[in-house]
Design brief:
Blueprint: H1 12-23, E1 29-38, E2 46-47, H2 51-60, H3 65-74, H4 79-86, E3 93-96, E4 102-103, E5 110-115, H5 116-121, H6 123-147, E6 152-155, H7 164-177, E7 181-182, H8 187-191, H9 201-205, H10 210-220, E8 226-228, H11 234-250, E9 257-260, H12 265-278, E10 285-288, H13 294-302, E11 309-312, H14 314-317, E12 326-334, E13 337-338, E14 353-360, E15 363-371, E16 379-380, E17 383-387, E18 390-391, H15 398-410, H16 414-417, E19 428-430, H17 432-447
Parallel strand pairs: 6-7, 6-11, 8-9, 9-10, 10-11, 15-19
Antiparallel strand pairs: 1-5, 1-12, 2-4, 3-5, 3-17, 12-13, 14-15, 14-16, 17-18
Length: about 450
């Protein structure tokens, strides 16, 4: 069993519900929608991400002989369910916002239409993938807005991510949001994401002389010459980097950049820039890491720090200030009848939905959530991506998704580009048609 692709990577209640559906001969089409109930504090918008991961999961979802064997020997499940799962394939239709789309609370990102057992069984993994990748893409987009084209950003977060898959998917999500690459090597062969790396303090410490360490590293890595200069004294490290750069230049090896990872980064970056420039090394860039996030990037650049790039790690890959989404995957229709949840604080809107977005002079001005089939002014955000369990088009490349995300961010109104903006700054309305359906469904539930 592959633990990351197995359909057993789910909650037990998905299987117990399937057993009840199978035993009760419930086979009608169900409609489920994934949405975020409320944006986390500190988020004025989110970036939809994770669709490709979900579609691949839907396409590949199978129960192996070993997995069926486990279910049999567990003694929890009926022969009827075991037989159903042995031949399981996802045959549903999927509508979704394209990855990279800006979205807001209550707006469905994905709508799944399938026989109820199929639509139910994908719930746990769909939420798992969509929540995480959306969180990271949204955090990364804020870093991109903070940099505002003045510095390049690289994902440095694998070692602090909450598991290997999280680190790999964070590389994907941050690249979609506009990062130029990642330090995670596996992201290159799996996703085609450019990889970047520097050097560790341990390499410096293992040498008796810092300058010798710089020269040795660059001789061994002539195409990856970034020198970590703050192991001992940053200004002293910068001077030794200059001395090493002169030696290396004679061998035809240019030093590309120096890296700072600690201390007063504003003052140190200015001092290092002065040292490099005074020795004629204006082309050597300054790269900074160490607990970076969108606020640190914004503040350093606003104060004139001569920084060319940032490595963003722990706070990105854990989305530290907003580590989860209040999201849900809810039944909105079954057997042709609109359905909804009425629990206190968790009321959901019934029926299949669409979101229309209006623009003025290239900037988004407001969204309206309505029932599918309603025709409103604006651009519809959900589009069909899978029919009968088959994709309607080949997967977009990450470069294409990243370009689309950049276009989406360019349409943000100025008030949403501020890192302290509130989600209430952007209007999201419920259409009269959806309000009527909600009232009709509530009345049906009251009378049933």
């Amino acid at each position: 069993m592959n633990p990351l692709t197995s359909p057993l990577l789910t909650d037990l209640y998905q299987l117990t519900m399937l057993q009840a559906y199978v035993e009760g001969d419930m086979k009608d089409k169900a409609v489920f929608e994934f949405f975020v109930r409320a944006l986390p504090e500190g988020r004025a918008f989110l970036i939809a991400c994770g669709l490709e991961s979900c579609l691949k999961f839907f396409e590949d979802m199978r129960f192996s002989d070993a997995e069926i064997g486990y279910l049999k020997q567990s003694g929890r499940f009926s022969p009827a369910l075991i037989s159903y799962l042995s031949d399981f394939r996802f045959t549903g239709d999927v509508y979704a916002m394209p990855e990279g789309t800006v979205f807001f609370a209550d707006e469905p990102l994905i709508r799944v239409e399938a026989p109820i057992c199929e639509a139910q069984l994908v719930e746990t993994r769909l939420i798992n993938l969509m929540q995480f990748e959306t969180l990271i893409a949204s955090k990364a987009a804020r870093c991109i807005l903070a940099a505002d084209g003045r510095a390049s950003l690289i994902d440095f977060g694998l070692r602090r991510a909450h598991g290997a898959e999280a680190g790999l998917l964070a590389a994907r999500a941050s690249y979609i949001a506009g990062f130029i690459g990642t330090a995670t090597v596996l992201a290159e062969p799996v996703f085609g994401i450019p990889i970047f790396g520097t050097m560790a303090h341990s390499f410096i410490e293992a040498h008796n002389d810092e300058q010798d360490a710089f020269v040795d590293f660059c001789l061994a890595n002539p195409n990856n010459t970034t020198l970590l200069i703050d192991t001992y004294d940053t200004a002293g490290g910068a001077r030794k980097a200059v001395a090493a750069a002169k030696i290396l230049a004679k061998k035809g090896i240019p030093v590309q950049r120096v890296r700072l990872d600690s201390g007063d980064l504003l003052a140190l970056s200015k001092e290092v820039r002065r040292i490099l420039d005074s020795e004629g090394f204006q082309a050597i860039q300054i790269f900074v890491s160490g607990n970076m996030d969108e606020f640190g990037i914004r503040d350093l650049l606003a104060q004139g720090a001569p920084i060319d790039g940032f490595g963003v790690g722990t706070k990105l890959d854990t989305s530290s200030d907003a580590p989860y989404l209040e999201c849900a995957y809810k039944l909105t229709e079954y057997a042709g009848q609109a359905r909804m949840k009425k629990s206190s604080g968790k009321v959901s809107f019934p029926g299949r939905k669409q979101v229309f977005r209006k623009y003025r002079k290239g900037r988004m001005t407001g969204d309206t959530i309505t029932i599918a089939g309603d025709l409103l002014a604006g651009m519809p955000l959900l589009e069909p991506v899978m029919v009968g369990g088959k994709r309607l088009a080949p997967a977009r490349t990450l470069t294409e998704i990243a370009d689309y995300t950049r276009e989406q961010l360019s349409t943000l109104p100025e008030e949403l580009r501020d890192l302290t903006a509130k989600s209430s700054a952007y209007p999201v309305k419920i259409s009269p048609a959806l309000e009527r359906l909600k009232n009709e469904t509530e009345a049906m539930l009251t009378n049933s």
